[in-house]
Amino acid sequence: MTPLSLIGLPGSGKSTVGRSLARRLDLPFLDADAVVEERIGCSIREYFEHAGEDAFRNVEESVLDELTRTHPGVLATGGGAVLRATNRERLRARGRVIYLCSTPAELLQRVRHDRNRPLLQVQDPLARLRELFEQRDPLYRETAHLVFEIGRPSVGRLVGLIMSQLELG
Ligand code: S3P
Q1: Which tens digit of pLDDT belongs to each residue from 107-117?
Q2: In 4-103, which residue ranges form alpha helices assigned H by DSSP?
Q3: Does the Cβ of 8 fall within 6 Å of ligand 1?
Q4: Which residues fall within 8 angstroms of residue 159, CB to CB, at 6 or more apart?
């Protein structure tokens, strides 16, 4: 069982917040995308290019299945982890799930110079983020036990907020 998983769109801070939360809780941290990259032996961007998105989603599903059964700490997931119902069910059943929710405009500020996110290498990344938000926000909400509308607080404040909610729950 994985005690805590973080979900949300690219740029929502899952890895940064997850790492900091794990440190505060004295738990190990894992980034599911990094584990996927170890498995496929190249970057996710390259894999998207030569194998396609479906192949990536298959590896992602098996990595999430394994990690949600075995990782005893905080897990940051890729933004598309909620697309498959099996992933949503496993994440929710095997631990507490936290959704870091930001608006497309805020997300764009954080990812605009990032060339490693294959889905955002398009002419109009803001329009793409809006589409992803529309499609996925309901899925993130369905999967999460706790939702944080993050706006722009510091990582430290956000982690403090999550810690206090977790203690209440
Ligand atoms: C994806 C998000 C990425 C990565 C892959 C697909 C998505 O993770 O898993 O490029 O579908 O939103 P981040 O959310 O860490 O960027």
Answers
A1: 999 888 888 88
A2: 14-25, 32-40, 44-51, 53-70, 85-93
A3: no
A4: 17, 20, 21, 24
Query: Which atom of ligand 1 is found nearest the CA of 136?
Result: 12
Tens of pLDDT, residues 122-144: 999 999 999 999 999 999 999 99
Taking Cα atoms as reference points, which of 53, 73, 77 lies closest to residue 65? Answer: 77
Question: Which tokens go with 72?
Answer: 């005893």
Q: Which atom of ligand 1 is nearest to the CA of 132?
A: 12
- The proportion of the chain whose per-residue pLDDT surpasses 90, expressed as a percent, equals 82
Q: Which of 130, 114, 36, 148 is nearest to 81 (CA)?
A: 36
Question: What mean pLDDT do residues 86-108 have?
Answer: 96
Task: Please give the distance, rounded to the nearest whole angstrom, from the Cα atom of residue 35 to the centre of ligand 1.
Answer: 13
State residue 168's pLDDT score. 54
